[in-house]
Please model this.
Amino acid sequence: MIRLFYILLIFTAAGIRAQQLPLYTQYMLNDYVMNPAIAGKNPYYEVKSNNRYQWIGITDAPRTYILSANGPTRDKNVGLGGYLFTDIVGPTRRIGIDFTYAYHIQLAEKTKLSFGASAGLLQWAVDGSKITLYHPFDNIISNGYQSVLVPNLGAGFYFYGEKWYVGGSAPQVYPAKLKFFSYQSDPESRMQTHFYGSAGYSFDLGEDFDLEPSILLKYVKPVPLQFDGGIRLVYKESVWAGATYRTMDAWAAFVGFNYEKNLTLGYSYDFTTTNLKNYSSGTHELIIAIRFGHRELKNDQKSRIQ
Model:
Protein backbone atom coordinates (compact mmCIF):
# COMPACT_ATOMS: atom_id res chain seq x y z
CA MET A 1 0.00 0.00 0.00
CA ILE A 2 3.03 2.26 0.21
CA ARG A 3 3.09 4.91 -2.52
CA LEU A 4 6.04 4.74 -4.89
CA PHE A 5 8.38 7.70 -5.16
CA TYR A 6 8.62 7.61 -8.91
CA ILE A 7 4.95 7.52 -9.72
CA LEU A 8 5.91 8.75 -13.18
CA LEU A 9 6.80 5.20 -14.09
CA ILE A 10 3.17 4.31 -13.57
CA PHE A 11 1.94 7.09 -15.88
CA THR A 12 2.87 5.04 -18.94
CA ALA A 13 1.48 1.71 -20.19
CA ALA A 14 0.97 0.27 -16.72
CA GLY A 15 -1.40 3.07 -15.74
CA ILE A 16 -1.86 4.40 -12.22
CA ARG A 17 -2.67 1.26 -10.22
CA ALA A 18 -1.16 1.87 -6.78
CA GLN A 19 -2.74 3.76 -3.89
CA GLN A 20 -3.40 7.35 -4.95
CA LEU A 21 -4.65 8.69 -1.61
CA PRO A 22 -2.43 9.56 1.36
CA LEU A 23 -2.18 7.59 4.59
CA TYR A 24 -3.27 8.91 8.00
CA THR A 25 -1.83 7.54 11.21
CA GLN A 26 -4.36 9.46 13.33
CA TYR A 27 -7.28 8.25 11.24
CA MET A 28 -9.62 8.46 14.24
CA LEU A 29 -9.12 12.25 14.21
CA ASN A 30 -9.03 12.51 10.40
CA ASP A 31 -12.34 10.69 9.92
CA TYR A 32 -14.14 13.50 8.07
CA VAL A 33 -11.65 13.76 5.17
CA MET A 34 -12.07 10.01 4.59
CA ASN A 35 -15.86 9.88 4.82
CA PRO A 36 -18.22 12.72 3.74
CA ALA A 37 -21.08 11.23 5.78
CA ILE A 38 -19.34 12.45 8.97
CA ALA A 39 -19.89 16.14 8.10
CA GLY A 40 -22.09 17.73 10.76
CA LYS A 41 -21.97 14.74 13.11
CA ASN A 42 -20.86 16.85 16.07
CA PRO A 43 -22.75 19.84 17.58
CA TYR A 44 -20.06 22.35 16.59
CA TYR A 45 -18.07 23.62 13.64
CA GLU A 46 -14.49 22.43 13.30
CA VAL A 47 -11.56 23.67 11.25
CA LYS A 48 -8.68 21.22 11.12
CA SER A 49 -5.17 21.23 9.67
CA ASN A 50 -3.34 17.97 9.05
CA ASN A 51 0.35 17.91 8.13
CA ARG A 52 2.11 14.63 7.36
CA TYR A 53 5.84 14.19 6.60
CA GLN A 54 6.46 10.63 5.53
CA TRP A 55 9.75 8.70 5.54
CA ILE A 56 11.98 11.45 6.94
CA GLY A 57 15.53 11.16 5.58
CA ILE A 58 14.54 10.01 2.08
CA THR A 59 14.79 12.60 -0.68
CA ASP A 60 11.43 13.60 -2.23
CA ALA A 61 9.44 11.50 0.25
CA PRO A 62 5.65 12.10 0.46
CA ARG A 63 4.30 15.23 2.13
CA THR A 64 0.59 15.82 2.70
CA TYR A 65 -1.19 19.02 3.80
CA ILE A 66 -4.95 19.19 4.38
CA LEU A 67 -7.19 22.01 5.61
CA SER A 68 -10.78 20.96 6.33
CA ALA A 69 -13.93 22.44 7.86
CA ASN A 70 -17.34 20.94 8.62
CA GLY A 71 -20.32 21.41 10.89
CA PRO A 72 -24.10 21.19 11.24
CA THR A 73 -26.58 23.60 9.68
CA ARG A 74 -29.58 25.07 11.46
CA ASP A 75 -31.40 21.99 10.30
CA LYS A 76 -29.67 19.60 12.70
CA ASN A 77 -30.04 16.73 10.21
CA VAL A 78 -27.80 18.34 7.59
CA GLY A 79 -24.03 18.68 7.69
CA LEU A 80 -21.83 20.65 5.29
CA GLY A 81 -18.11 20.82 4.82
CA GLY A 82 -15.14 21.05 2.53
CA TYR A 83 -11.40 20.60 2.38
CA LEU A 84 -8.31 21.66 0.44
CA PHE A 85 -5.34 19.36 0.09
CA THR A 86 -1.89 19.03 -1.43
CA ASP A 87 -0.10 15.69 -1.72
CA ILE A 88 3.51 15.86 -2.96
CA VAL A 89 5.58 12.81 -3.92
CA GLY A 90 8.91 13.49 -5.66
CA PRO A 91 8.26 15.23 -9.00
CA THR A 92 4.49 14.71 -8.73
CA ARG A 93 1.87 16.85 -7.05
CA ARG A 94 -1.80 16.26 -6.36
CA ILE A 95 -3.89 19.35 -5.51
CA GLY A 96 -7.62 19.38 -4.96
CA ILE A 97 -10.72 20.79 -3.37
CA ASP A 98 -13.84 18.93 -2.28
CA PHE A 99 -17.21 19.97 -0.89
CA THR A 100 -19.40 17.60 1.09
CA TYR A 101 -23.04 17.19 2.05
CA ALA A 102 -24.39 14.77 4.66
CA TYR A 103 -27.87 13.93 5.90
CA HIS A 104 -28.31 12.39 9.37
CA ILE A 105 -31.34 10.23 10.18
CA GLN A 106 -32.46 9.53 13.75
CA LEU A 107 -33.11 5.76 13.96
CA ALA A 108 -33.45 5.38 17.73
CA GLU A 109 -32.95 7.44 20.88
CA LYS A 110 -29.15 7.22 20.66
CA THR A 111 -28.60 5.86 17.16
CA LYS A 112 -28.19 7.70 13.87
CA LEU A 113 -27.43 6.81 10.27
CA SER A 114 -25.98 9.35 7.86
CA PHE A 115 -25.28 9.37 4.15
CA GLY A 116 -22.84 11.74 2.52
CA ALA A 117 -21.54 12.77 -0.87
CA SER A 118 -18.55 14.80 -2.01
CA ALA A 119 -17.71 16.58 -5.26
CA GLY A 120 -14.72 18.61 -6.32
CA LEU A 121 -11.79 19.08 -8.66
CA LEU A 122 -8.43 17.38 -8.62
CA GLN A 123 -5.23 18.38 -10.40
CA TRP A 124 -2.53 15.79 -11.04
CA ALA A 125 0.80 17.30 -12.08
CA VAL A 126 4.36 16.18 -12.81
CA ASP A 127 7.41 18.42 -13.07
CA GLY A 128 9.60 16.88 -15.76
CA SER A 129 12.49 19.22 -14.94
CA LYS A 130 13.00 17.33 -11.66
CA ILE A 131 13.47 13.99 -13.42
CA THR A 132 16.78 12.70 -14.75
CA LEU A 133 16.17 10.25 -17.60
CA TYR A 134 18.30 7.25 -18.47
CA HIS A 135 17.87 8.27 -22.11
CA PRO A 136 18.08 12.09 -22.25
CA PHE A 137 16.13 12.31 -25.51
CA ASP A 138 13.31 10.01 -24.42
CA ASN A 139 10.17 11.46 -26.03
CA ILE A 140 7.84 9.72 -23.58
CA ILE A 141 8.39 12.34 -20.89
CA SER A 142 8.59 16.10 -21.30
CA ASN A 143 11.02 18.13 -19.21
CA GLY A 144 8.30 20.71 -18.64
CA TYR A 145 5.41 20.94 -16.19
CA GLN A 146 2.52 18.68 -17.21
CA SER A 147 -0.86 18.63 -15.46
CA VAL A 148 -4.40 17.41 -15.88
CA LEU A 149 -7.60 18.61 -14.17
CA VAL A 150 -10.34 16.06 -13.49
CA PRO A 151 -13.59 15.90 -11.46
CA ASN A 152 -13.63 13.98 -8.21
CA LEU A 153 -16.70 12.33 -6.67
CA GLY A 154 -17.12 10.38 -3.46
CA ALA A 155 -19.79 8.86 -1.22
CA GLY A 156 -20.10 7.26 2.20
CA PHE A 157 -22.33 6.16 5.09
CA TYR A 158 -21.90 6.41 8.85
CA PHE A 159 -23.89 4.40 11.43
CA TYR A 160 -23.22 5.65 14.94
CA GLY A 161 -24.30 5.99 18.53
CA GLU A 162 -23.01 7.69 21.65
CA LYS A 163 -20.18 5.18 22.19
CA TRP A 164 -19.64 3.46 18.83
CA TYR A 165 -19.54 3.87 15.07
CA VAL A 166 -19.37 1.86 11.84
CA GLY A 167 -18.71 3.55 8.51
CA GLY A 168 -17.76 3.02 4.91
CA SER A 169 -16.79 5.29 2.03
CA ALA A 170 -15.46 5.44 -1.52
CA PRO A 171 -13.48 8.71 -1.88
CA GLN A 172 -12.85 8.34 -5.64
CA VAL A 173 -15.94 6.90 -7.31
CA TYR A 174 -15.44 8.34 -10.79
CA PRO A 175 -12.50 6.67 -12.64
CA ALA A 176 -11.46 9.75 -14.60
CA LYS A 177 -8.73 9.24 -17.21
CA LEU A 178 -5.49 11.14 -16.64
CA LYS A 179 -4.17 12.44 -19.95
CA PHE A 180 -0.84 14.12 -19.22
CA PHE A 181 0.63 14.26 -22.73
CA SER A 182 -0.88 15.42 -26.01
CA TYR A 183 0.20 12.29 -27.89
CA GLN A 184 -1.97 10.08 -25.64
CA SER A 185 -5.19 9.31 -27.52
CA ASP A 186 -6.54 6.81 -25.00
CA PRO A 187 -4.45 6.93 -21.79
CA GLU A 188 -4.62 3.96 -19.45
CA SER A 189 -3.77 6.06 -16.41
CA ARG A 190 -6.89 6.82 -14.43
CA MET A 191 -8.14 7.57 -10.94
CA GLN A 192 -8.69 4.38 -9.00
CA THR A 193 -11.69 3.87 -6.74
CA HIS A 194 -10.62 3.47 -3.11
CA PHE A 195 -12.74 1.84 -0.40
CA TYR A 196 -12.56 2.60 3.32
CA GLY A 197 -14.25 0.77 6.17
CA SER A 198 -14.03 1.88 9.81
CA ALA A 199 -15.38 0.96 13.23
CA GLY A 200 -14.72 1.92 16.83
CA TYR A 201 -16.06 1.72 20.38
CA SER A 202 -15.47 3.67 23.60
CA PHE A 203 -15.30 1.73 26.88
CA ASP A 204 -15.72 3.54 30.20
CA LEU A 205 -12.91 2.79 32.64
CA GLY A 206 -14.29 4.52 35.70
CA GLU A 207 -15.11 8.22 35.90
CA ASP A 208 -11.92 9.58 34.37
CA PHE A 209 -10.71 7.18 31.69
CA ASP A 210 -12.05 5.85 28.40
CA LEU A 211 -10.47 3.16 26.23
CA GLU A 212 -11.17 3.48 22.51
CA PRO A 213 -10.14 0.67 20.14
CA SER A 214 -10.71 1.28 16.43
CA ILE A 215 -10.01 -0.24 13.03
CA LEU A 216 -9.63 1.10 9.50
CA LEU A 217 -9.68 -1.05 6.36
CA LYS A 218 -8.40 0.28 3.01
CA TYR A 219 -8.62 -1.32 -0.39
CA VAL A 220 -7.75 -0.29 -3.93
CA LYS A 221 -7.34 -2.78 -6.74
CA PRO A 222 -4.93 -4.58 -7.23
CA VAL A 223 -3.13 -3.75 -3.94
CA PRO A 224 -3.83 -6.17 -1.05
CA LEU A 225 -6.28 -5.10 1.64
CA GLN A 226 -4.54 -2.97 4.28
CA PHE A 227 -5.57 -2.96 7.93
CA ASP A 228 -5.01 -0.25 10.55
CA GLY A 229 -5.70 -1.14 14.15
CA GLY A 230 -5.44 1.40 16.94
CA ILE A 231 -6.21 1.96 20.59
CA ARG A 232 -6.48 5.23 22.48
CA LEU A 233 -6.60 5.87 26.23
CA VAL A 234 -8.39 9.14 27.03
CA TYR A 235 -8.25 10.96 30.36
CA LYS A 236 -11.26 13.18 31.17
CA GLU A 237 -11.91 13.69 27.44
CA SER A 238 -8.92 16.05 27.49
CA VAL A 239 -5.63 14.13 27.17
CA TRP A 240 -4.91 10.91 25.31
CA ALA A 241 -2.17 8.57 24.21
CA GLY A 242 -2.26 5.50 22.04
CA ALA A 243 -0.73 3.33 19.36
CA THR A 244 -1.64 1.99 15.92
CA TYR A 245 -0.38 -0.73 13.62
CA ARG A 246 -0.62 -0.59 9.83
CA THR A 247 -0.04 -3.84 7.95
CA MET A 248 2.74 -3.84 5.36
CA ASP A 249 3.99 -0.46 6.57
CA ALA A 250 4.48 0.66 10.18
CA TRP A 251 3.42 0.89 13.78
CA ALA A 252 3.02 4.25 15.47
CA ALA A 253 2.59 6.05 18.77
CA PHE A 254 0.50 9.19 19.22
CA VAL A 255 -0.50 11.73 21.88
CA GLY A 256 -2.88 14.68 22.01
CA PHE A 257 -5.02 16.94 24.12
CA ASN A 258 -8.08 19.20 24.03
CA TYR A 259 -7.87 22.67 25.54
CA GLU A 260 -11.25 23.73 26.94
CA LYS A 261 -12.90 21.68 24.16
CA ASN A 262 -12.04 24.43 21.64
CA LEU A 263 -8.48 23.60 20.59
CA THR A 264 -7.11 20.15 19.73
CA LEU A 265 -3.48 19.18 19.14
CA GLY A 266 -2.42 15.71 18.06
CA TYR A 267 0.97 14.28 17.13
CA SER A 268 2.03 10.85 15.90
CA TYR A 269 5.30 9.17 14.98
CA ASP A 270 5.52 6.14 12.68
CA PHE A 271 8.18 3.45 13.06
CA THR A 272 8.58 1.90 9.62
CA THR A 273 8.57 -1.92 9.51
CA THR A 274 9.56 -2.35 5.85
CA ASN A 275 13.07 -2.19 4.39
CA LEU A 276 12.66 1.59 4.22
CA LYS A 277 13.61 1.64 7.91
CA ASN A 278 17.23 1.32 6.71
CA TYR A 279 16.96 4.72 5.02
CA SER A 280 14.25 6.63 6.90
CA SER A 281 14.05 7.81 10.50
CA GLY A 282 10.24 7.58 10.50
CA THR A 283 7.12 9.62 9.77
CA HIS A 284 5.69 12.67 11.57
CA GLU A 285 2.04 13.74 11.56
CA LEU A 286 0.65 16.85 13.26
CA ILE A 287 -3.03 17.79 13.66
CA ILE A 288 -4.35 21.17 14.84
CA ALA A 289 -8.11 21.72 15.18
CA ILE A 290 -10.26 24.65 16.32
CA ARG A 291 -13.90 24.26 17.33
CA PHE A 292 -16.50 27.01 17.54
CA GLY A 293 -20.24 27.63 17.34
CA HIS A 294 -21.14 24.92 19.86
CA ARG A 295 -24.84 24.14 19.76
CA GLU A 296 -26.82 22.89 22.74
CA LEU A 297 -28.57 19.77 21.52
CA LYS A 298 -30.74 17.22 23.22
CA ASN A 299 -28.89 14.41 24.94
CA ASP A 300 -29.81 11.92 22.23
CA GLN A 301 -28.32 14.21 19.60
CA LYS A 302 -24.97 14.83 21.26
CA SER A 303 -21.94 13.14 19.81
CA ARG A 304 -18.88 12.22 21.76
CA ILE A 305 -16.17 14.90 21.53
CA GLN A 306 -13.02 13.19 20.29
Summary: Helices lie at 31-34. The mean pLDDT is 84. The two ends are 27 Å apart (CA to CA).
